[in-house]
Amino acid sequence: MAPYYKRILVILFTFQGLLITSAFNEDGDVPEEWILLHVVQGQIGAGNYSYLRLNHEGKIVLQMQSLKGDADLYVSDVTLHPSFDDYELQSVTCGQDVVYVPAHFRRPVGIGIYGHPSHLESEFEMKVYYDQTVVESPFGGGSYNPEEMKMNQKKFHSTEDEYQDEESVFWTILIGILKLILEILF
């Protein structure tokens, strides 16, 4: 059951990352609430990793642009050497990669930059922003908002229902195919 919740969390963080990505306009502007902390530039060979550590507290946004080739981004608060096999958050587009690192992630956070094998060498530029849009309470969470809680519960139940519907369709098709095979054989 835990992998199911982990998958939902990854999907939610990915969706939030997509929302953040959509906040950028064509000029590359970022919201006023974001404070630029660092700019990291580098090169990575095909099939290799480069690792960074993030020590800043709070909500952090990692915005990486592949200048040449295709560099992918993997993030983890469990390991300092995340990879495509072991990560909590990822962004693996061919252009701009954005990952939202939540404030509750343990520090230091491991950042893995992977040079995709489709190019001999990849060049990247990563900007690290501090997102100050939501101030969290010192007690570990935001304020209680009953409307937001209801919305989150509805989203969770609708996702669970969609999963059960997909599973039901799968089994219906599989049973139909098995019946057809049995009719042909006997």
From TrEMBL:
Task: Supply the InterPro entries for this chain.
Answer: UPF0669
Q: Where in the cell is it found?
A: Secreted
Q: Which Pfam families does the record match to this protein?
A: UPF0669 (PF17065)
What is the scientific name of the source organism?
Ophiophagus hannah
Residues in the signal sequence: 1-23
Query: What is the protein's major site of localization?
Result: secreted
Entry keywords, A to Z: Glycoprotein, Secreted, Signal
What protein family does this chain belong to? Belongs to the UPF0669 family.
What's a single GO CC term here? Answer: extracellular region
Q: What is this protein called?
A: CF120 protein
